[in-house]
Amino acid sequence: MKNLTRKQRKMLYRILLAAALLAAVELLPALLPAGGAAFLWLLYLVPYAVIGWDVLWKAVRNILNGQVFDENFLMALATVGAFATGEYAEAVFVMLFYQTGELFQDYAVGKSRQSIAALMDIRPDTANLEAGDGSLEEVDPEDVEAGAVIVVRPGERVPLDGEVLEGASALDTAALTGESVPRDVGVGDAVISGCVNQSGLLRVKVTKPCEESTVSKILDLVENAGEKKAASENFITRFARYYTPCVVLAALALFLLPTAALALIPPASQPAFLAGTAWTGWLHRALIFLVISCPCALVISVPLSFFGGIGGAGKCGILVKGSNYLELLSRAETVVFDKTGTLTQGSFTVTALHPARDFGEADLLEYAALAESWSSHPISLSLRKAWGKEIDSGRVTDVEEIAGHGITAKVDGKAVCAGNSRLMEREGARWEPCDLPGTIVHVTVEGAYAGHILISDLPKPEAKTLVEGLKAAGVKKTVMLTGDAEAAAKAVARELGIDEYHAQLLPADKVERVEGLLAAKSPGAALAFVGDGINDAPVLTRADIGIAMGALGSDAAIEAADIVLMDDDPAKIATAMRISRKTLRIVKQNIWFALGVKGAVLLLGAFGVATMWEAVFADVGVAFLAILNAMRCLRVDEFRK
């Protein structure tokens, strides 16, 4: 009772009252005087009116509005017809069970919506705006402009995207990414709306207004996901539009044709299936036919399955923009990856040191790090990070950065060159080649070759598991597209088990490659492209399904992709595929179960074998079971870490 809404509680009270009244009326015939049974139908009208008045009113109202063939019309016609044939108790029972089923359906749908609403309850109602004198004022996040300073206390949800000005804390990003591990932030770090501040006080400079914040974009996508329907949903909508009128006409024919035959054909000449029957019996069969035909099980359970699948994916930090993309993902045959930032970490790391004879590894790294200390290039940053000591700028003078070659400088008064093979040739130094894949930084000191350093963009630890998981899920081909060098691309593809790779591609080249893969795929299959959503927007748009990963706070990713992974875990691509296939499996189960049971009971009803009780099960029971099955789409614990 606690979990029921006010409307649901009122319906429950009506059901209990109608059931009690029906039980009382069932006991009355034995107590009535002679001739009193003729007025029994008036007594049955009382529980019928209590439980069915709203169904009758909706049926009349819909007819007046031109919407004839819906479940209210079918139930009204069936139960009023039962009254007309003297089946009073049956009419009340049918309406009672129908309303009971509707209550269960409403409760099930409400629970699924509550689960998704709780999942998406990530937009705070207030923000602590800091005034010029340092005082705080609680305001609506929509009233806070970019550039303003807000304060986020421990336990509060970050209301707007911004940058930390003061303080350090751990942010719970579970509502956005599905991950339970907090993310540490400090001064200068970006924070996004929707995360929960777990520990320290944060002063944050707002970088985006409320309508452009991450949480607003996510909520907007979730709210509009229902507009993009899957083919299965569109099929059910079209099916119900034609199915119900056809069944009503079939029920009418089931009553009129035998009744006309009974009136026109002499009893001695009547066929066996008509012999001994009356027109009231055929009317009863037609009414049973109508109860069975109600398409509630399909019309409710199929959209609810997709709704649950999208909500379940959201729990895992996977944002799906529409059920059509969820259905397409289940048919993915080819998965194409961008390399940098998708399969690899997207940051350079020193992976090998190869000093010359007269130099040690520490000396080689120190000279290279100091020489590169004035550069902001990612390679320079990786060298300084690998050295791991504070740079003494007084040791470095006469720095010159030569575009496309490297850097020359004086370190402790010694001439040092750090760069590629072209710089070595320019300086006239004899250098040694390296067969390992990656970027090579050669170093000379006072003209003497000191050795070379190998810098690589390492694959993510989860990337190999991802590729294996996709192949286990039935993906036939995995392809990697990259603008990186041939050797680096080949090494990553071999290490991860990628079937095919193409290197040194420009964005336009990637689109061309995807076009070729789209032309080669099997009929009905889909191609998914996985990228970072920023420089891969053209390919994300062209693929059947565009998946952006590492997209926490990335506007470009959220806009360009059809499915957004709200963190940089590539293993969630396989998770998204498993969720999509589970959802489609449940949708198909519901369709075949509903059609199978209804078809069988319709035939039994037409031949007079099925009673109104079987009809109620074929309508209410099947709908209830299908909805319970659809709610399984929300259960994604087996897919979460």
Map the helices and strands.
Elements: H1 6-27, H2 40-64, H3 71-84, H4 88-119, E1 127-130, E2 136-139, E3 149-152, E4 162-166, E5 169-172, H5 174-177, E6 183-185, E7 190-191, E8 196-197, E9 202-206, H6 214-224, H7 231-264, H8 279-293, H9 296-315, E10 318-320, H10 323-330, E11 332-338, E12 344-355, H11 361-371, H12 378-387, E13 396-402, E14 406-411, E15 414-419, H13 421-427, E16 439-445, E17 448-459, H14 463-472, E18 477-481, H15 486-496, E19 500-502, H16 507-520, E20 526-531, H17 537-542, E21 545-548, H18 555-560, E22 563-565, H19 571-606, H20 612-630
Helix pairs in contact: 1-2, 1-4, 2-3, 2-4, 3-4, 3-8, 4-9, 4-20, 7-8, 7-9, 8-19, 8-20, 9-19, 9-20, 10-19, 11-12, 14-19, 19-20
What does this structure look like?
The chain is of the alpha+beta class and 641 residues long. It folds into 4 domains: 6-117 and 232-272 and 281-305 and 583-639, no CATH class; 127-156 and 161-207, Distorted Sandwich (Calcium-transporting ATPase, cytoplasmic transduction domain A), CATH 2.70.150; 318-343 and 460-566, Rossmann fold, CATH 3.40.50; 346-458, Calcium-transporting ATPase, cytoplasmic domain N (3-Layer(aba) Sandwich). The chain has a 7-stranded mixed sheet, with helices on both faces. A 6-stranded antiparallel sheet has the order 2-1-3-9-4-7, with no helix packed on it. Helix 17 (537-542) links the parallel strand 20 (526-531) and strand 21. The mean pLDDT is 80.
